[in-house]
Amino acid sequence: MTINTKNTNETYRHHYHLMPEYGWMNDPNGFSFFNNSYHLFYQYYPYDTVWGPMHWAHAVSDDLIKWDHEKIALRPDKSYDKNGVFSGSGLQVGNEHWLYYTGHNDSFLDFLYDQNLKKKEGVIESEEIVSPIRQVQCLAKSADGITYEKYEHNPVISSQQVPSNIRLEDFRDPKVWEHHDQFYMIVGAKSHENVGHVLFYCSNDGVTWEYLNQLSLGPEYGTAWECPDLFELDGKHVLIFSPQEIPRIGYRYENIHSTMALIGEFDYETGEFIVENEQELDKGFDFYAPQTTLSEEGKRVMIAWMNMWDMEYPLHELGHSWNGSMTLPRELLLKDGKLIQKPYHTIDKYREERIEWSHFSIKDYFENDKLRGNCKKMEIKFCMNDSDYFNMEFFKGDREKLLLSFDKSRNEIVLDRRNAQFPIKNTAIHNDFTRSHSIDLSQKVKLNIFLDVSSIEIFVNDGEHVFTSLFFSKELGEQVLLHSEGHTHIDKLIKWELR
Ligand code: FRU
Predict the structure, then answer these.
(1) What are phi and psi of 65, to 5 degrees?
(2) Is the Cβ atom of 41 under 6 angstroms away from ligand 1?
(3) DSSP code string of 53-65
(4) Which domains, ranges and CATH numbers included, belong to the chain?
(5) Measured between alpha carbons, how far is 141 from 93 in angstroms, rounded to an integer?
(6) Would you say the CB of residue 57 lies under 6 angstroms from ligand 1?
(7) Cα–Cα distances in Å, from 23 out to 7, 54, 116, 226, 312?
């Protein structure tokens, strides 16, 4: 074991986001409501602060904000999942809690030997073995929501049920839901031509599955599609997924790996998804593999991993014994055919010490000690009719700042994190320190900003765009500085502490 599990360094730990107590975290898994609690599992490696053979860690909550850690739910201890219990989903079936996950095995020939499958005529001959990796879909069940038993006849979907155009080593992340007494599953995949796909399966009992259909948007939409989710929202169907390596196009897909939503109609008979609209889910640097569930009140809530693959985060090098966190839960809504995101309302009960400034103008700088704090919510509504440039500096120190700027001549919003003494670097692209989007600055702009020690989530114009990002400030700057060229009129500026 290379990490000290007793001495986790608290410096960058969040106060109102879920993180592992120690070790490595990635994707949210099994997000569901069971036995009067929300359950959120996540990809977990307890023995280091880098990715390793995946376990499912488990946390429960009453309000989706404060989480209690439970014992590890699933470990990579079977022949079919011995190199990782990969991502998947959870739902209540009868009185039980069922988890579906991907068994990852990167030495398939041993697996065949273990299972004595070698003898089975046709299994090996029918497959051209190009990779020793196999991914299969598996089931685990629990009666109490604490202890999970893997189904004795796993996998429930084996390599033989994968259509021939799909790579058997890239077939993962099952999301299962019920519709009219039938079970449906959507799984992420990659074809032999390196094109991202999702596959649909259906089942009467959640155990025996039949292949239904597949969806792809072609090579310009990325290689593997990971962590898909499909749900109904305001009379439409929404399919969210995380496509790898979509090329950048202007403001779109600036991250190495992206997250997208397709909005349209899903036909349960044929498994066909008719796409009417598409959009990127988050404009920040650190947002991946989102998963949704229905809240107790029937709202669609999404949580994502607040990180990104192929980036260098300093927590591991600094030896802090933990790495990875989740975003705030966000309610999803449809407005004019577009998905919008709102911080889930339960965060409001943690607000304290409200301070408000209203109806004033900023020319040059605005700074106030009452804006300080490393754990806060800010709301601001401003108008740039008489200014050309407006910006906000967060985590402000002498040599550091996270800069959010609005440039009227370009109608552009830009988040810039180059001024950090512990920079987060893209391992593939140099100087990749800005994320931007177009915005109509002839209209008033409203921002809802959540800052939590080393993270920021910026909801623009009631969640039309969201920028989610991490920032590891060495100076631990707590001040916010506002700056305007010309007069920026502030309708209101409100700040709360979040406890
Ligand atoms: C997405 C992902 C999933 C996979 C998991 C492994 O971040 O690559 O596709 O199941 O992480 O940890």
Answers:
(1) -110, -55
(2) no
(3) SBEEEEEEESSSS
(4) 23-343 (2.115.10.20), 352-498 (2.60.120.560)
(5) 9
(6) no
(7) 12, 11, 36, 23, 16
- What span, in angstroms and rounded, lies between the C-alpha atoms of 12 and 313? 12
The encoded tokens of residue 310 equal 């192929």
Indicate the top mutation candidate among 27, 48, 171 to test ligand 1's pocket, ranked by most ligand atoms within 8 A of CB. 27
For the Cβ of 87 lying below 6 angstroms from any atom of ligand 1, the answer is yes
Question: Is the CB of 170 within 6 Å of ligand 1?
Answer: no
User: Atom of ligand 1 at shortest distance to CA of 309?
Assistant: 7
DSSP notation for 125-171: TTS----S-EEEEEEEEESSSS--EE-TT--SB-GGGS-TTEEEEEE
Gap between the Cα atoms of 304 and 25, Å rounded: 11
Ligand 1 pocket test: pick from 56, 226, 257, 309 the residue with the most ligand atoms within 8 Å of its Cβ. 226
Confirm or reject: Cβ of 226 under 6 Å from ligand 1: yes
Count of Cβ atoms closer than 10 Å to residue 272 Cβ: 15
Q: How remote is the CA of residue 367 from the centroid of ligand 1, in Å?
A: 42
CA distance 17 to 275: 33
| Alpha-carbon 277 to chain mean position | 21
Residue whose CA is closest, atom 8 of ligand 1? 226
Is 27 labeled as catalytic in the residue annotation?
yes
Rounded to an integer, what distance in angstroms lies between the CA atom of residue 487 and that of residue 374?
Answer: 28
- Are 471 and 394 within 8 A, CB to CB? yes
Can you give the pTM of this predicted structure?
Answer: 0.95
* 484 Cα–ligand 1 center, Å: 42
Q: In this predicted model, what pLDDT tens digit does every residue of 32-88 receive, in sequence order?
A: 999 999 999 999 999 999 999 999 999 999 999 999 999 999 999 999 999 999 999
Task: Name the 3-class secondary structure at 379.
Answer: strand
Q: What are the pLDDT digits (tens) for 102-151?
A: 999 998 766 566 555 555 545 544 445 568 889 999 999 999 999 999 99
